[in-house]
Amino acid sequence: MRIYFLFVLFLSLVSSQNLFAQTKLDSTDPLTEMMYSISDVVFANPFRKEETEIRKRVLESNAAELRDLRIQLKNSLRSLSLSKSDVQSKNAKFRSLETALESLPSLGGFLWKEESGTVYQWGDWSDFYEDGFSKEKLRLEGQIPSFSYEGGTLYYFLKNPPGSLPAEFSFLGWESHFYAFGDEGSLRYTNDFRLDPSERLGDFRKAFDSIRKKIPGSQIVTANDLTIFMIPGKPKPIYYIFLFLRFFLIGWTILLSGYIIRMSLSLPKNHLPDDSAPLS
Asked: How far apart are CA 38 and CA 36, in angstroms?
């Protein structure tokens, strides 16, 4: 009965610790963060850990691409010293800008807007306008990367180069598949190279409804301007090794805790002979 009570108490402490760790992500205490990390490694669901890793890597890749593309755009504009009048007159500087934009394979669209309206648009922005093709009101304007230029604002968005798919995304444990689509509906990142790169978000969302019924645990995660579909795969042998280690650590902790509690609660024994005993 005592072992059963300790087992229930231990599982309650572990569950509350994991829940508390999720609500204390902003903790700056190194020791606390280390304890949360150890608890996460030992007790977390491997697919949940993989989901976290996928989200992290996709966001890092997306941020790096946005940063690199912004630098290239700024360098092109700075080298051309492009002004609003150059765009309106469509002179040599403007034609050089169009050539520079076409040379960026990851650039999906470029938009120069001012308070008075659109100065210049390159690429297909129809998916980003709330009011259709009037080019006046942007949908989710705060989520589209932008920077200031010549008193206006320059917006841009990424797309995957035609026929190419992202680089390596491999993990230990569960072999999950993921598909990350951009806000404009194009496929941005995936580790399933069997998928057609021209697949669109709307079509894949419809197919995902049937996938979710066949494969439990499939889910949709939103990360900034990306929509990530995750499908868990079959566990590899290493998953069962880690699973055994988890159960071994839990069992060992329960036995050790029970031993420590039993030793701390037991009364000290007096090994001295009784004074009332007759001496021979």
From this structure: 6
Give 117's contacts (C-beta < 8 A, 6+ positions apart): 135, 136
pTM value is: 0.65
Average pLDDT over residues 55-63: 86
Pick 280 or 100 by higher pLDDT: 100
Full DSSP string of the chain = -HHHHHHHHHHHHHHHHHHHHHTTTT---HHHHHHHHHHHHHHS-HHHHHHHHHHHHHHHHHHHHHHHHHHHHHHHHHHHT--HHHHHHT-HHHHHHHHHHHT-TTEEEEEEEETTEEEEEEE--GGGBTTTTSS--BTTGGGS-EEEETTEEEEEEE-PPTT--------SSB--EEEEE-TTSBEEEES-TTS-TT-BHHHHHHHHHHHHHHSTT-EEEEETTEEEEEE--PBPHHHHHHHHHHHHHHHHHHHHHHHHHHHHHSPPP--SPPTTSPP-
Structure tokens at 120: 């210049």
Match 């996938």 to its residue by tokens. 211
At residue 163, what are phi and psi to the nearest 5 degrees?
Answer: 80, 5
Say which residue, 27 or 277, is predicted with more confidence.
Answer: 277
Nearest CA to 155 among 128, 173, 188, 130? 128
Count Cα atoms within 13 angstroms, Cβ side, for 222: 4
User: Is residue 236 predicted with pLDDT exceeding 50?
Assistant: yes
Query: In the numeric block, which tokens belong to residue 272?
Result: 């001295």
What is the pLDDT confidence band of residue 38, given thresholds at 50, 70 and 90?
Answer: low
Closest C-alpha to 144, from 133, 130, 163:
130
